[in-house]
Design brief:
elongated, single chain, 18 strands, mainly beta, about 10% helix, Lipocalin
Length: about 450
């Protein structure tokens, strides 16, 4: 498709004048003005005071011909459109900078966590069955389901054109999704039977660490799960084709993104009566135990990106459709911490590495990577408030096909003998396994387009 240089006196066919009429009128006006132009050139630069007089003497027909559109500029897709006349309405004139600022109300896939805290409503439950998964009256207080959440986010995109025809430019974008936090705080006053379930590797059966049990233990547990996402991009914007009130651009660039998740579990409990330990020393009443497990997971993405950006304008209204796909490497970084502190009356506290779900077998830092794809799509409807400002509302969707979340690396199979030292028959469980899953964000966008 070919376009006339900026300043050509052309109107789109639907605007009322056909091309032949336009040529004829331009030719007549040119012949009428040619002697004056030649005389002006021969005299050299004019004084500024004669400018208004010359403009007022311009034939009315020329003013009609060069006038662009009404406020909505239906015959140009925006600033820099070469199909508009030089003295178009300002919304059709060239502007070097463009961009938009958006607020996003999002929903994400969340993450699947295993059962982390349980209780029993029946206080007559046997102690060996309390909090153990698989029993009919055991109820999960946290975990065992997807942790979906509403997310608040902000997105900024801006760029500039390299040429006055607005065919080639460079753009930058940033997406920041606010930190999402899911908490649980429970104690044995509210839940007399309170436990942390796990699968016992020693006897290959479901088991539970009791934090609260009538006349035996009193305690509490606190869980904090957080998630945060940041992404950035830089891209070249190249016009592919355009018409009177639309254009389609190709996007080529680089994409960076980071998804950071954290899961921390803290518990403490007190022995209300002396507890006998088979083959060991009895634990006196008043003894306390404090545990914590923490899983921090970072997903860092570096990729090349391809996309397309289509724009359509009709009067004061505009429609933007953007689609992008990134192809690159996802780096997984998992860090685990765990600790148990035991205190007995009149005895110094003893601290050992490992809590419950973090033991020596999965304590430390672990890394992996994989090829990942990240598609993104958005659609925005805009309304023009001024030649340089639009209000927009729309929908956006973002997807990663491979990420690792804390729920993917938690191993419920535990051999508690690791806290007593490296015994020959101790199993290396729990373990770290990089089980990846998909992750998506979607929601509504509300923003402002600007150009100047």
């Amino acid at each position: 498709m070919q376009y006339e240089p900026k300043g050509t006196l052309r109107r789109c066919p639907h605007r009322g004048l056909n091309w032949n009429t336009r040529q004829m009128m331009a030719l007549v006006v040119g012949l009428l003005l040619l002697p004056a132009v030649a005389e002006s050139a021969a005299r050299g630069p004019r004084a500024s005071g004669t400018r208004e007089a010359d403009a007022s003497a311009m034939p009315a027909s020329l003013e009609v011909e060069e006038a662009c559109d009404s406020f909505g500029c239906t015959s140009c897709v925006g600033p820099g459109d070469v199909t508009c006349a030089d003295n178009c309405d300002p919304c059709c004139r060239f502007t070097s900078v463009w961009g938009n600022i958006e607020y996003l109300l999002l929903w994400d896939r969340g993450q699947d966590l295993p059962p982390l805290v349980t209780t029993n409503d029946d206080l007559n439950t046997l102690r060996e069955n309390a909090g153990v998964l698989g029993n009919a009256n055991t109820r999960t207080l946290f975990g065992d389901e997807g942790m979906d959440d509403n997310r608040h986010a902000g997105r900024v995109t801006f760029g500039m054109w390299w040429d006055q025809a607005a065919t080639v430019g460079i753009g930058f974008g940033y997406l920041g999704v606010g930190k999402s936090t899911v908490n649980l705080d429970a104690n044995s006053s509210e839940f007399p039977i309170l436990a942390r379930p796990f699968f016992n590797a020693i006897d290959s059966s479901e088991d539970a660490l009791l934090l609260g049990f009538p006349n035996a233990f009193s305690g509490d547990v606190s869980i904090r799960s957080t998630s945060e996402l940041n992404a950035a991009e830089v891209f070249k914007r190249q016009c592919c084709f355009r018409g009177c009130n639309y254009r389609v651009d190709i996007l080529v660039g680089y994409r960076y993104a980071q998804l950071q998740d954290s899961l921390r579990i803290e518990d403490s409990f007190e022995f209300l009566v002396q507890q006998n330990v088979p083959g060991g020393t009895p634990i006196p009443a008043g003894s306390t135990v404090q545990n914590f497990d923490q899983f921090d997971v970072d997903n860092t993405y570096h990729a090349g990106q391809l996309g397309a950006w289509a724009q359509k304008r009709n009067g004061n209204f505009s429609l933007d459709l953007i689609g992008k796909v990134a192809f690159g490497q996802m780096n997984f970084d998992v860090s685990t911490q765990g600790q148990t502190t035991s205190t007995q009356p009149n005895v110094a506290a003893v601290t050992v590495p490992g809590g419950l779900l973090v033991q020596q077998s999965n304590l430390g830092n672990f890394k992996d990577h994989a090829f990942a794809v990240m598609p993104e799509a958005s659609a925005n409807l805009g309304y023009q408030l001024s030649p340089f400002i639009d209000l927009t509302v729309g929908y956006t969707f973002l997807y990663w096909n491979r990420v690792v979340r804390p729920g993917d690396v938690v191993d419920r199979v535990v051999d508690l003998r690791q806290q007593g030292g490296n015994l020959p028959d101790v199993q290396a469980r729990p373990e770290i396994a990089f089980r990846d899953t998909g992750y998506w964000l979607q929601g509504m966008t509300f923003g402002v387009n600007f150009r100047f």
